[in-house]
């Protein structure tokens, strides 16, 4: 399987995130991608190529122009205030506060974000655009005839909505790739999110649409991040009604329960008649993940890959979460190798 990878990911390296009321070192670190790349090479998964540049247009196909402009200008405006440390919001535009977009960078930082775990740094723009190019290059290769491609994307993307960042995500790499596949002629694309956390951003982007089916298996938002989206009764709106499937599972759910949800999701994808599949591949479903609470173990990721291959669809994998850094490479490549072995 071909891998698309950019070294520019290491330009995103936040110093701290606010977790459980205290500032802690970021869980989303460059070492995650280093370990995945090492495993791709060690297991001889296939060629590794660098992304080609695609510019802003494909990003603007799913993200709001004001939000993109904010991400591009945030750091220079922040550092012009004499601040050489990460930009993090200090409040949010919640119920009954004005929805007007603030002019000041501090206000925009609050307006265009959903949490304080997603630091904007000097390298964020470059890293996030490189991740988007990575996903787009994978889409190019899929349309060029590859059966499956792995976009080794960092920073991740599935929490990034049309107009806000969060959950370590800035651009929604999987959504950008899915939209690119649509723009290049596929009529129906499915996005399946197997990360521990609900892909609120991807749901936000495709919620009113019937051409992109979104499905997510995740920790129940009643107790798990992102708390405010990911419930089973969210089924889409307007033309998109019936094209959004959430499978929230209680924290601590056993592996067999997780695979029952996966099989339900796969059935919906087959019923939809998808012509391609984009997988938001988070491996924080691992039993040893430091911030998540499912029970998958290493062999289960092989099984996951084989189940996905059973759809017999051109498939694009985008890396999302997974914070047990030591085994992350093994788990990601287990999915990809399991997919390949199913043939
Ligand atoms: N800082 C709060 C938790 C962010 C979750 C990030 C993630 O893994 N999303 O899939
Ligand atoms: Zn996650």
From TrEMBL:
Keywords: Hydrolase, Metal-binding, Zinc. Pfam families: Hist_deacetyl. InterPro entries: HDACs, His_deacetylse_dom, His_deacetylse_dom_sf, Ureohydrolase_dom_sf. Gene3D superfamilies: Histone deacetylase domain. Its cofactor is Zn(2+). Residues 28-336 form the Histone deacetylase domain. Belongs to the histone deacetylase family. This is Histone deacetylase family protein.
């Amino acid at each position: 399987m071909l891998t698309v990878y950019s070294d520019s990911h290491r330009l995103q390296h936040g110093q701290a995130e606010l977790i459980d009321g205290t500032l802690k070192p970021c869980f989303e670190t460059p070492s995650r991608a280093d370990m995945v790349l090492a495993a791709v090479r060690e297991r001889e998964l296939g060629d590794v190529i660098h992304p080609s540049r695609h510019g802003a247009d494909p990003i603007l196909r799913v993200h709001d122009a004001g939000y993109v402009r904010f991400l591009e200008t945030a750091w220079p405006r922040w550092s012009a205030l004499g601040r050489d440390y990460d930009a993090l919001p200090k409040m949010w535009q919640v119920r009954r506060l004005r929805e007007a977009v603030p002019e000041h960078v501090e206000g925009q930082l609050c307006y265009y974000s959903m949490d304080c775990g997603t630091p904007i740094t000097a390298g964020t723009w470059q890293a996030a655009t490189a991740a988007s190019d990575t996903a787009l290059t994978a889409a190019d290769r899929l349309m060029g005839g590859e059966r499956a491609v792995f976009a080794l994307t960092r920073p991740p993307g599935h929490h990034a909505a049309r107009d806000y960042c969060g959950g370590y995500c800035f651009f929604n790499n999987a959504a950008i790739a899915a939209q690119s596949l649509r723009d290049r002629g596929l009529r129906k694309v499915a996005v399946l999110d197997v990360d521990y956390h609900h892909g609120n951003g991807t749901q936000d982007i495709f919620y009113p649409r019937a051409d992109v089916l979104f499905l997510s298996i995740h920790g129940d938002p009643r107790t798990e991040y992102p708390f405010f989206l990911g419930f089973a009764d969210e089924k889409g709106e307007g033309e998109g009604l019936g094209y959004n499937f959430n499978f929230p599972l209680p924290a601590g759910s056993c592996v067999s329960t997780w695979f029952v949800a996966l099989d339900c999701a796969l059935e919906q994808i087959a019923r939809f008649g998808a012509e391609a599949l984009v997988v938001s591949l988070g491996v924080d479903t691992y039993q040893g993940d430091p911030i998540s609470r499912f029970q998958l173990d290493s062999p289960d990721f092989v099984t996951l890959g084989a189940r996905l291959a059973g759809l017999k669809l051109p498939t694009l994998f985008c890396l999302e979460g997974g914070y047990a850094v030591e085994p992350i490479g093994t788990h990601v490549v287990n999915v990809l190798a399991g997919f390949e072995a199913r043939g």
